[in-house]
Amino acid sequence: MPDGTERPIGYVSRSLNPAERNYSTIDKEALAMIVGVKKFHQFLYGKRFTIRTDHKPLEGLFGEKKGISAQASPRVQRWALTLAAYEYDIHVQYKAGTMNGNADALSRLPLPEMLEETPIPGDTIKLMELLEAIPLHSGQIRDWTRRDPVLSKVHQCALGNWPNITCPSKELQPYFNRRTEISQPDGCLLWGTRVIVPPKGRAQVLAVLHEAHPGISRTKSLALSYVWWPGLDQEIEEQVKQCGRCQQNQKTPAEAPLHPWEWPGQPWSRVHIDYAGPYKGEMFFVLIDAYSKWLEIHVMKSTTSTATIEKLREIFATHGLPKTVVSDSGTNFSSGEFE
């Protein structure tokens, strides 16, 4: 209003569908923002406006001073494109829920009467037990970040103290390269929507990621959605390579397709040669005609290139010279003397 007071012009609400109920907290908060922008499109399009949210990570994720992170989930990237239709004339601003009465009043109103307590389903109890077993929580990460000599510096820089040109030290370089996408909500460092895990918690996170033995690619894909630290991909590869169960379950290489030889047009135009054995201490020189399947087998005292050449001369003196001789890449067939 002209006097600075705020007056609501409309409210919108809707329930989450089954798929949206599985969204992370930051995705649910971003979804609320997108629903509101789409609902009041006719009021907002072509005008500069402010979005006030009580979820601070959205301020860094969709803020006008930062582009959307390449590490963001495809869903968040699609929402960023939706907001791009407003010509980036948008500013996301954090406002605590207790101060955001226009939006939160209806959801915070007390019920006129107490609802009857419903029994908790067994699946919910199992989920609560699983949540209690989560190895890390924000308090631990915040404490480890504050105590870590590198991440504590990153935290200070993320408050707006990054150097303008060059990185001050090699240990800060991976974070300096991502400085425009690093935020620090509640004392925890985020790269985009991924938590930057301090060194003390990395072994626990790797153990959780690797718990189902999903292999290198799927473990990296899982980590891509939740966590990051310098050298994460290499640590995942090393962990999977050292896991005996993963090595036993890895896929065998695909068999190479067969490339059959063309059928020769006449006898003795192409012959195939090889050695067989040893059998009872003897080596055998084998020659077969591809057209007639005529077979020549000779016991050999030596399998050198010289002995092979002598035996071929003997056979060719009897049957004539073929157009093509086929062999494997054995040293007695690939030597300069044989060629």
Describe this structure in words.
With about 350 residues, the protein is of the alpha/beta class. The chain has three domains: about 20-110, no CATH class; about 125-245, Orthogonal Bundle (Endonuclease III, domain 1); about 270-325, Ribonuclease H-like superfamily/Ribonuclease H (Nucleotidyltransferase, domain 5, 2-Layer Sandwich), CATH 3.30.420.10. About 40% of the residues lie in helices and about 15% in strands. Strands 3-4-5-6 form a four-stranded mixed sheet. Strands 9-8-7-10 form a four-stranded mixed sheet, with helices on one face.
Which structural class is indicated by helix and strand composition?
alpha/beta
Which sheet architecture does the biggest sheet show? 4 strands, mixed
- What's the architecture of the largest domain, going by CATH? Orthogonal Bundle
* Rg on CA atoms, Å: 35 Å
Indicate the proportion of strand residues. Answer: 5-15%
- Would you list the SSEs in sequence order as H and E? HHEHHEHHHHHEEEHHEHHEEEHEH
User: What is the strand arrangement across the widest sheet?
Assistant: 3-4-5-6
State the distance separating the first and last CA atoms: 95 Å
Shape: elongated
The total number of structural domains is: 3
Count all strands and give the number. 10
Treating each run of at least 4 consecutive H or I residues as one helix, how many helices? Answer: 15
The residue ranges in which pLDDT falls below 50 over 5 or more consecutive positions are none
CATH fold-level label of the largest domain: Endonuclease III, domain 1
Helix content: 40-55%
Give the class-level CATH name of the largest domain. Mainly Alpha
**How would you classify the quaternary structure?**
single chain
Overall mean pLDDT: 80
